[in-house]
Amino acid sequence: MVVSLPADVLERYERFSLYNSPYVAHDRGCAIDLYPGTETEIARSPVAGEVVDTRDVKAPPKAYAAEHDHLIVLDCGEHVARTLHVDPAVEAGDRIAVGDPLGEFVRAGFFAPWVDNHVHLGFRAPDANPYRASGSLPIVPEVSPLALDWDGSGTVVETGDTYAILDAPTHPRPGAGTFAGIAASVVRSDGTNATDTSGSRRVVLDGGLSHYDGGGALPTASDRSLASGGRIEFLGTEIGVVEERDVAWHPLSVSANGRSITGLSLFCGRDSGFGAKLVCPDTGFEPDECVEVSIRLK
User: Domains (ranges, CATH) in the chain?
Assistant: First the structure.
């Protein structure tokens, strides 16, 4: 059983990711993180239903983060939804529509410092335990992201203490309804390359490459099929193996201008600020610096 998340819900957010997390809740794309952008502190509901419960959740201790996160459980009829990372302004018995405010974002110890505010969303069967971290149903976004070719190069346009964002690849059609992500090619298990000259068998990468254990290979706007059992190639390197849409990364090292970095943060976005995001808490880059990213097997 899977849960489809409609396009008109996703279009309320600038970015989404199914796999860009180290936590078990995201295994096999069983949760989605919805990023509204950096201009708001108010989290709005991606689902309609009745609030069943709110509960404080002890978060991993981190000096820069809040001690507690918060779980909001909603009865959506066919499924039970659970959200995290929102300090609830709702309570049990409240009726919620899509887009209604749930509360303010909270940055608890589940967040790595390079991660932006977002709503974590998962779904359970009505008879399943809504409080366990694992056990949610796989989520299928009802959008087809554009696959953006990228050669690993770009110019730094934004920096933080733990990350740098490049101006490439660029989103060709930013705006409502047009999500895009960084493309990779697939080599089928028979050894033939699944990417043809039209790019019809490319996939969009999702996840933390390779600072998290695995990631995703999402079907693209030109081809909704999956390349189960294939090998993923990116920037001239075989980076992992895909089963359906789940990718197990090979042991990899990621470098930028010859300097080791933690990895790449991969997602689907529709905003004009789309660009490769380098996770680099131990390596600094300057605005306007030209960068070449490379990947090799360890």
Answer: 3-141 (2.70.70.10), 146-297 (no CATH)
